[in-house]
Specification:
By secondary structure, the protein is an alpha+beta fold. The chain is built from five helices and three strands; from the N terminus they run ααααββαβ. The chain has two domains: 45 residues; 66 residues, Histidine-containing Protein, Chain: A (2-Layer Sandwich).
Length: 122
């Protein structure tokens, strides 16, 4: 009889513990977005963290720096987060470098305004 009561108490304690863990997630969700039924980490929650123009510029510059042929090139990046757009300007030595820069910038999920001049070195 005592063993049955002890087992029941352990099961009850575990059930309360698991329920409390679930409630913590609900509490955090309601603090961030009251009334939201979206799970934590959802797209709606991530969209609340707005990216700045400088964040977007740094993201694109980081992508450009991954390409060895573009590291020596001086390209300027200006971002407009509201339009989800970056403008890339500067001078490169080949059409291939220009195309690579544009494709890398697009891989950041933005529209690219191309103001890159191609001037082969003499």
């Amino acid at each position: 009889m005592i063993r049955t009561i002890n087992t029941s108490l352990v099961i009850l304690a575990l059930g309360v513990g698991f329920a409390a863990c679930d409630r913590t997630d609900d509490t955090r969700r309601s603090e961030k977005n009251p009334g939201s039924t979206a799970p934590l980490g959802s797209a709606s929650e991530r969209s609340e963290a707005k990216v700045s123009n400088s964040d977007l510029e740094e993201t694109v510059k980081a992508k450009l720096s991954t390409e060895e042929q573009l590291r020596a090139v001086n390209l300027d990046v200006e971002a407009n987060v509201d339009k989800n757009e970056v403008t890339i300007s500067g001078t490169v030595q080949s059409q291939e470098q220009r195309n690579t820069a544009i494709e890398l910038a697009k891989s950041a999920g933005v529209t690219v305004k191309d103001k890159i001049d191609v001037k082969p070195s003499s």
